[in-house]
């Protein structure tokens, strides 16, 4: 039997969550994921923490690239909003946009974490910037 340390949640390039090879899709799990305390261990490792019966529980998150993936871009009056893989909506800080090759990234979660634009969102970002 695996120990708790050996268990982890994988985040793929599209921002989908997997645990023990199974895609996590249940609405309550996604809600739970959004509310957890995220701790950055290093550039590629994060831990989620929560309390259960006064005991701190932790699980490691191992992203293929980034823990947050920008899945869509919504242009509103004078600003660009980002739809993240945790189903939250954030205003884009254009000062944080950077490219690694042809893949755009931006800082999210109050500027604490780098997020990768998926292909769809990258195209929408280009359209939104051109129409500003």
The description of the largest β-sheet is:
6 strands, mixed
CATH topology tier name of the largest domain: duf1285 protein fold
CATH class (first level) name of the largest domain = Mainly Beta
Contiguous runs where pLDDT drops below 50 for at least 5 residues: 1-5
Number of helices: 2
- Tell me the strand order in the biggest sheet: 3-2-1-6-5-4
Order of helices and strands: EEEHEEEEEEEEEH
Whole-number mean pLDDT: 86
Describe the structure.
This protein is of the alpha+beta class. The N terminus is likely disordered. The strands form two sheets. A six-stranded mixed beta sheet has the order 3-2-1-6-5-4. A six-stranded mixed beta sheet has the order 9-8-7-12-11-10. It contains two helices and twelve strands. It is elongated and about 50 Å long. It folds into two domains: 60 residues, duf1285 like fold; 63 residues, duf1285 protein fold (Roll).
Feature tags:
132 residues; alpha+beta; duf1285 like fold; duf1285 protein fold; 2 domains; six-stranded mixed beta sheet; elongated; disordered N terminus
Short description:
With 132 residues, the protein is α+β, with helices and mostly antiparallel strands. The chain has helices at 27-35, 119-130; strands spanning 8-11, 17-19, 22-24, 37-42, 45-52, 55-63, 68-76, 79-84, 89-91, 98-100, 103-108, 113-117.
């Amino acid at each position: 039997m695996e120990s708790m340390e050996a268990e982890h949640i994988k985040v793929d390039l599209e921002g989908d969550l997997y645990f023990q090879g199974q895609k996590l899709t249940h609405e309550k799990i996604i809600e739970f994921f959004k509310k957890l305390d995220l701790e950055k261990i290093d550039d590629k490792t994060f831990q989620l923490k929560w309390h259960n019966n006064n005991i701190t529980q932790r699980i490691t998150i191992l992203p293929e690239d980034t823990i947050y993936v920008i899945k869509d871009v919504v242009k509103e009056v004078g600003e660009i909003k980002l739809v993240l893989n945790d189903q939250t909506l954030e205003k884009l800080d254009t000062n944080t946009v950077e490219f690694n090759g042809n893949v755009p990234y931006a800082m999210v979660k109050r500027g604490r974490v780098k997020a990768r634009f998926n292909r769809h969102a990258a195209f929408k970002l280009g359209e939104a910037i051109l129409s500003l």
